[in-house]
Amino acid sequence: MASALLSFFVIGDQAQPYANTRSPHGPLNVACQNCHTFSGWKPIRSIPEFDHNQTRFPLRGLHEKVACTSCHIKPVFSNVGRKCADCHADIHKRQFGARCEQCHTVRGWQVSVQQIQNHQNRFPLLGAHAALTCDLCHKSAAVGQFAGLNTACYSCHAKDYQTTTGPAHVSGGFSATCEQCHGFDNWYGVRFDHLKYTGFALTGMHSSLECTACHIGNRFKGTPATCVGCHLSNYQKTTNPNHIALNFPQTCQLCHSTSAWQPANFDHNSVGFPLTNGHANLQCTQCHVNNNYKLTSGACSTCHMKDYNTTTNPNHVQAKFPTDCSVCHSTVSWGNAIFNHSATGFPLTGAHANVQCTQCHVNGNYNLTSTACASCHMKDYNSTNNPNHAAAGFPQTCDVCHTTTAWSPAFFNHNNTAFPLTGAHVTTLCASCHVNNNYTTLPTTCYGCHQKDYQSTTNPNHAAAGFPTTCQTCHSTTSWQGAVFNHTWFPTNHGGANGVCSTCHTNPSNYAVFSCTNCHTKSQTDQQHQGVGGYVYNSTNCYSCHRSGQGGG
């Protein structure tokens, strides 16, 4: 061996290899002294001067510290395989295929994190499962089952299920589907969806109770879902009120809630008698005297008959008021009663709304049968003298003139009579026409009131001229003066008369007499009527031809 080494030794500055020397490593073009020493052919240098990265298999991870002969068992290095399985026996018996690098890395034979992430198959590794080593579930790597392993929790946790005593799962008949209560993070910290799996929601105080508080003696099947199933003792020992003596129903939820057994709240609406206002704050025993909860009447008088009998303003008994207190009283308070007077057919309006009841219902008489104003206001009727109602024989239907706002002033709608008031008549005092309180036999003609005006008028003199007494022919209700006569057949401004009647009507005592010749001279008229047949110079003939105001001026 020493002679073989000498064939590669350096003599002087140049290597002197022997021509007949053959390397056992095959086509390895590396100087021997890079690996071997002068001491002997073996062992090789502890750190060979050989760059494995220049080969087809760079050394990484744990491969960097492995002895060369661990992989290169034969001297011809190029004959070593590069696959993991070429050096590492497959203890999984090909259950994962031949690619070890799917799970393992050159940094360690332990399973890689990437492999855990790739466990997203039928059973993803969540929570505490992600930190487990494979062999905790896949027992005996060499012979264990990796494909088709049961995914049910119970398949691994059967021992946990069987040994759990708080509560005991086996004797309690618990389901073996562990995920109903347990999570992946921790075997403890159990959460059971009570509503989903039992139909009984845990609310209020129930949600913070230990399971054994209801499931006594590890009894989880057949536990009653009714309140009385657990609270019968509470029902039996309750004395305020005594549930047993009063034969209260055992449907506890009618009054109690899961928040707390006390205080209890009963929905009084369910019995047809809502508790409102003052009733809402009463103690039950104030109405249910001597623990009588079997009341059959909701009438107010059942409790308030004493109030009815003792009330004196007004005296209910004497006035024979109905015992239906709700007609006037409310649950807010017994006082300040309000009666809906409109329900009697006599609404209280105007001043009536603020009148005390006794002002109309004298001597406690609430059985009035008449709604006529005169039944209360007869004294006002008799004492009124402007005008004097009694003397004038006014009807006793006061509302014709008066309102409930005030007795005075009164307003009479004259339009409802045969003589509507217009013009100056509207503001005229009643007594101006209704002289001596005569409201019954007055004429409706103008002359009936204006006879004096007719007789005293001199321009023109109505009486002397024999004017008709139908005053409205010339006069209006606006004013007696400024009369206007409809001079239908002849213009009143003819000949510059300008409405002066006496210009033509020369006889003030007889307006049937008129003269044309006072203005129209004969000589002038004759000249204008030359050749006119039947022409005669006199007023009558003038009017017969010129009554329309045409034919001359």
Structure description:
Among the domains are: 2-82, no CATH class; 197-253, no CATH class; 487-546, no CATH class. It is mainly alpha-helical and 553 residues long. The chain starts with a helix and ends in a 7-residue tail after the last helix. 22% of the residues lie in helices and 1% in strands. Strands 1-2 form a two-stranded antiparallel ribbon. The model is unreliable at 1-19 and 549-553 (pLDDT under 50). It has helices at residues 2-6, 68-71, 84-87, 113-117, 134-137, 153-163, 194-198, 211-214, 227-237, 284-287, 301-310, 357-360, 374-383, 389-392, 430-433, 446-456, 462-465, 522-528, 539-546; strands at 10-11, 14-15.
Number of strands: 2
**Largest sheet, strands/sense/barrel:** 2 strands, antiparallel
Helix content: 10-25%
| Rg calc | 66 Å
Q: What class do helices, strands and sheet pairing give?
A: mainly alpha
Tell the overall outline.
elongated
Q: Strand arrangement, largest sheet?
A: 1-2
Strand content: under 5%
How many helical elements? 19
Task: Determine the N-to-C terminus distance.
Answer: 180 Å
Q: Residue ranges: pLDDT <50 for 5 or more in a row?
A: 1-19, 549-553
**Series of secondary-structure elements, N-terminal to C-terminal:** HEEHHHHHHHHHHHHHHHHHH
Q: pLDDT average, as an integer? A: 84
